[in-house]
Structure formats: C-alpha cells, structure tokens
Amino acid sequence: MSDKKASSRATPPGMQFSTPVGAPETRRKMLLFKRLLRRELQREAQTPQQIRTARQRRDQQEAHGVFPAS
Question: For the chain, which residues make up each domain, given as ranges?
C-alpha cells in the first residue's frame, strides 16, 4: 500500500525549472537549454581537427575585436 502512495506522489516526467511553466523566464531557460544542447550535439559530430580550427578562428577574431553574436 505504501508503494502505491509513493508512486502517486512522484514528480511528473520531464524537465522542471524553478519558475512557473507559463512564465517568460521559463521560456528563455528552455530556449537556452535547447541552444546549448544543439551546440553540444553538433560538436559531437565534429572531428578534433574541426574543433581545433573553429577555436583558433574564434580566438583570432576576438584578438581583432570581432565578437560572435551569440
């Protein structure tokens, strides 16, 4: 019987943030999470040479005062 009560109190599946579901801040957090996840998945598909080249290009741009938009 206690197992039944414990399972009914379990948190619903899915992601939860510290802000309410309909809040604009929650939407921003989800968009940020999706962007970070997308970048990580793209990075996994890259070879170490591609990662190194992109990092060097970014470092050179920053040295010249050009900064990425995101």
Answer: 23-64
